[in-house]
Amino acid sequence: MIDSKGYRPNVGIILCNDEGRVFWAKRVGMDSWQFPQGGIHPNEDPKDAMFRELREETGLKNTHVEIIGRTRYWLHYKLPSRYIRKKSLPLCIGQKQIWYLLRLTADESSFRFDCAENPEFDGWRWVNYWDPLKDVVFFKRKVYRKAMMELGALLVSDKVPIDPDGYLANDIFSEF
Protein backbone atom coordinates (compact mmCIF):
# COMPACT_ATOMS: atom_id res chain seq x y z
CA MET A 1 0.00 0.00 0.00
CA ILE A 2 1.65 3.22 -1.23
CA ASP A 3 0.03 6.65 -0.82
CA SER A 4 -0.38 9.16 -3.64
CA LYS A 5 2.98 10.80 -2.81
CA GLY A 6 4.91 7.52 -2.91
CA TYR A 7 5.16 6.75 0.81
CA ARG A 8 4.36 3.41 2.38
CA PRO A 9 2.45 3.67 5.71
CA ASN A 10 4.39 2.13 8.56
CA VAL A 11 4.60 1.97 12.35
CA GLY A 12 7.74 2.24 14.47
CA ILE A 13 8.11 1.00 18.03
CA ILE A 14 10.34 2.35 20.78
CA LEU A 15 10.11 -0.15 23.62
CA CYS A 16 11.66 0.83 26.93
CA ASN A 17 12.15 -0.78 30.31
CA ASP A 18 11.70 0.83 33.72
CA GLU A 19 15.30 2.07 33.66
CA GLY A 20 14.58 4.14 30.54
CA ARG A 21 16.73 1.94 28.30
CA VAL A 22 15.36 0.93 24.90
CA PHE A 23 15.04 -2.38 23.06
CA TRP A 24 17.52 -2.51 20.18
CA ALA A 25 17.16 -5.43 17.79
CA LYS A 26 19.66 -7.07 15.44
CA ARG A 27 18.42 -7.95 11.98
CA VAL A 28 18.65 -11.62 11.03
CA GLY A 29 22.06 -12.57 9.67
CA MET A 30 23.35 -8.99 9.59
CA ASP A 31 25.27 -6.57 11.76
CA SER A 32 22.43 -4.09 11.37
CA TRP A 33 20.30 -2.87 14.27
CA GLN A 34 16.96 -1.08 14.44
CA PHE A 35 13.75 -0.57 16.37
CA PRO A 36 10.86 -2.88 15.50
CA GLN A 37 8.79 -1.48 12.66
CA GLY A 38 6.55 -2.63 9.87
CA GLY A 39 3.96 -1.82 7.27
CA ILE A 40 0.33 -1.03 7.86
CA HIS A 41 -2.08 -3.26 5.94
CA PRO A 42 -4.98 -1.77 3.95
CA ASN A 43 -7.81 -0.73 6.30
CA GLU A 44 -5.64 -1.47 9.36
CA ASP A 45 -5.48 1.05 12.19
CA PRO A 46 -1.91 2.13 13.12
CA LYS A 47 -2.39 0.91 16.70
CA ASP A 48 -3.51 -2.52 15.47
CA ALA A 49 -0.55 -2.62 13.08
CA MET A 50 1.78 -1.73 15.94
CA PHE A 51 0.50 -4.61 18.09
CA ARG A 52 0.69 -7.01 15.11
CA GLU A 53 4.27 -5.98 14.31
CA LEU A 54 5.24 -6.12 17.99
CA ARG A 55 3.99 -9.72 18.16
CA GLU A 56 5.56 -10.78 14.85
CA GLU A 57 8.96 -9.21 15.51
CA THR A 58 9.44 -9.58 19.28
CA GLY A 59 6.89 -12.17 20.41
CA LEU A 60 5.36 -9.66 22.81
CA LYS A 61 1.59 -9.41 23.15
CA ASN A 62 -0.41 -6.29 23.95
CA THR A 63 -0.68 -7.58 27.53
CA HIS A 64 3.14 -7.43 27.83
CA VAL A 65 3.38 -3.67 27.23
CA GLU A 66 1.85 -0.34 28.16
CA ILE A 67 1.44 2.42 25.59
CA ILE A 68 3.06 5.62 26.84
CA GLY A 69 2.40 7.67 23.72
CA ARG A 70 2.56 8.01 19.95
CA THR A 71 3.68 10.67 17.54
CA ARG A 72 1.03 13.24 16.72
CA TYR A 73 1.71 13.23 12.98
CA TRP A 74 3.20 11.02 10.31
CA LEU A 75 6.99 11.21 10.16
CA HIS A 76 8.51 10.70 6.70
CA TYR A 77 11.79 9.49 5.34
CA LYS A 78 12.93 9.02 1.77
CA LEU A 79 14.89 6.04 0.58
CA PRO A 80 18.24 6.65 -1.11
CA SER A 81 17.77 6.33 -4.87
CA ARG A 82 19.77 3.07 -4.96
CA TYR A 83 17.06 1.43 -2.77
CA ILE A 84 14.08 2.60 -4.82
CA ARG A 85 12.66 -0.16 -6.99
CA LYS A 86 12.11 1.96 -10.07
CA LYS A 87 10.33 -0.80 -11.99
CA SER A 88 7.74 -1.39 -9.24
CA LEU A 89 4.44 0.41 -9.51
CA PRO A 90 3.25 2.29 -7.66
CA LEU A 91 6.70 3.74 -7.00
CA CYS A 92 7.66 3.76 -3.32
CA ILE A 93 10.08 6.58 -2.47
CA GLY A 94 10.05 6.08 1.31
CA GLN A 95 7.95 5.54 4.36
CA LYS A 96 5.61 7.58 6.49
CA GLN A 97 5.48 6.37 10.05
CA ILE A 98 3.49 6.68 13.23
CA TRP A 99 5.79 5.93 16.15
CA TYR A 100 4.77 4.43 19.50
CA LEU A 101 6.59 4.54 22.82
CA LEU A 102 5.88 1.43 24.90
CA ARG A 103 6.94 0.25 28.34
CA LEU A 104 7.66 -3.43 28.89
CA THR A 105 5.46 -4.67 31.73
CA ALA A 106 6.26 -8.39 31.33
CA ASP A 107 9.36 -10.41 32.05
CA GLU A 108 12.13 -10.34 29.44
CA SER A 109 11.60 -14.07 28.93
CA SER A 110 8.49 -13.09 26.92
CA PHE A 111 10.68 -12.08 23.95
CA ARG A 112 10.53 -14.54 21.05
CA PHE A 113 11.77 -14.18 17.51
CA ASP A 114 9.94 -17.16 16.00
CA CYS A 115 6.44 -15.68 15.78
CA ALA A 116 6.64 -14.81 12.08
CA GLU A 117 7.27 -17.00 9.06
CA ASN A 118 10.35 -14.91 8.25
CA PRO A 119 11.78 -13.52 11.49
CA GLU A 120 13.18 -9.98 11.35
CA PHE A 121 15.57 -10.25 14.29
CA ASP A 122 17.95 -12.79 15.78
CA GLY A 123 19.25 -10.80 18.73
CA TRP A 124 18.54 -7.85 20.98
CA ARG A 125 19.88 -5.78 23.84
CA TRP A 126 18.85 -2.88 26.08
CA VAL A 127 20.71 0.32 25.18
CA ASN A 128 20.76 3.87 26.48
CA TYR A 129 17.93 5.94 25.06
CA TRP A 130 19.92 7.93 22.48
CA ASP A 131 22.34 5.18 21.38
CA PRO A 132 20.20 4.05 18.42
CA LEU A 133 20.89 7.35 16.66
CA LYS A 134 24.55 6.35 16.37
CA ASP A 135 23.83 2.87 14.97
CA VAL A 136 20.76 3.11 12.76
CA VAL A 137 21.23 3.19 8.99
CA PHE A 138 21.92 6.77 7.85
CA PHE A 139 18.71 7.38 5.91
CA LYS A 140 16.52 6.58 8.94
CA ARG A 141 18.51 8.74 11.38
CA LYS A 142 16.43 11.93 11.04
CA VAL A 143 13.09 10.18 11.47
CA TYR A 144 14.45 8.29 14.48
CA ARG A 145 15.61 11.55 16.01
CA LYS A 146 12.23 13.22 15.46
CA ALA A 147 10.34 10.28 16.97
CA MET A 148 12.74 9.94 19.89
CA MET A 149 12.64 13.64 20.70
CA GLU A 150 8.84 13.83 20.61
CA LEU A 151 8.22 10.61 22.52
CA GLY A 152 11.18 10.79 24.87
CA ALA A 153 9.81 14.00 26.35
CA LEU A 154 7.04 11.84 27.84
CA LEU A 155 9.61 10.03 29.97
CA VAL A 156 10.08 13.06 32.22
CA SER A 157 6.42 13.01 33.29
CA ASP A 158 5.56 12.05 36.85
CA LYS A 159 2.82 9.86 35.38
CA VAL A 160 5.29 7.53 33.65
CA PRO A 161 7.01 4.98 35.93
CA ILE A 162 10.32 5.10 34.05
CA ASP A 163 13.64 6.53 35.16
CA PRO A 164 14.16 9.50 32.80
CA ASP A 165 17.93 9.65 33.33
CA GLY A 166 18.62 7.85 30.06
CA TYR A 167 16.68 10.47 28.16
CA LEU A 168 18.09 13.46 30.02
CA ALA A 169 21.71 12.41 30.55
CA ASN A 170 23.13 12.38 27.02
CA ASP A 171 24.03 15.48 25.09
CA ILE A 172 22.81 13.97 21.85
CA PHE A 173 21.91 17.31 20.35
CA SER A 174 25.55 18.27 19.87
CA GLU A 175 26.35 14.98 18.12
CA PHE A 176 23.74 15.07 15.33
Describe what is shown at a glance.
With 176 residues, the protein is an alpha+beta fold. Helices cover 19% and strands 28% of the residues.
Query: How far is it from the N-terminal to the C-terminal residue, by CA?
Result: 32 Å
User: Looking at the structure, what is the overall shape?
Assistant: globular
What is the rounded Rg? Answer: 16 Å
Instruction: Kindly report the average pLDDT value.
Output: 91
- Return the string of H and E elements: EEEEHEEEEHHH
Instruction: Count up the domains.
Output: 1
At the first level of CATH, what is the class?
Answer: Alpha Beta
pLDDT under 50 segments (min length 5)?
none
- Helix fraction, binned, reads 10-25%
Strand proportion: 25-35%
Number of strands: 8
How would a crystallographer describe the biggest sheet? Answer: 5 strands, mixed
What key attributes describe this structure?
single chain, 176 residues, Nucleoside Triphosphate Pyrophosphohydrolase, five-stranded mixed beta sheet, globular
